[in-house]
Amino acid sequence: MCEDLKIHSSMFEMDGKQFSLNDIQKVTILNEDAKYKGKTKPFSHQVLSGVTMLMPIAGNPVLYVGLRIGMKDGSTQYVYVSKKPVQINSDAYYADRKEAERLMEKLTKGTPSSVMQAEKNDPIL
């Protein structure tokens, strides 16, 4: 489980702050280009997964998998699932994606679909 995020039955905790699960509006799984982590606002430089024509030429990008948690009050919380950079379409990438999906499921469990929007930015998974 991601060390920065603790999920309980009715709330989640990040960086010592507590948030109600009922206050979540939207959860999105995102990939951030590894060279920008810690230098800009989290997930400002996203990498879409999937196959592109440039990958054989440029190589597979290195990234961090994480979650963007949009709150009903308009604020946004970010959590990195990847502990170290992973290469897209690698076993480590798929393991981090699976963990992100598991966390997203826990964050959105029991929330009516009319209130909650859970999405993934990748059509391949």
Tell me about this structure:
The chain has one domain (23-120). The chain is globular and about 40 Å long. The protein has helices spanning 55-58, 91-108; strands spanning 5-7, 11-14, 17-20, 24-33, 62-71, 76-80, 86-87, 117-120. The chain is α+β, with helices and mostly antiparallel strands.
Shape field: globular
Number of discrete helical segments: 2
Order of helices and strands: EEEEHEEEHE
Measured by DSSP, the beta-strand proportion falls in 25-35%
Rg (C-alpha, Å): 15 Å
N/C terminus separation:
20 Å
Major β-sheet, in short? Answer: 5 strands, mixed
Structural class: alpha+beta
What's the total count of β strands? Answer: 8
Oligomeric state of the chains? single chain
Uncertain ranges: 51-57
Count of the domains: 1
Report the helical percentage. Answer: 10-25%
**What is the overall pLDDT average?**
80
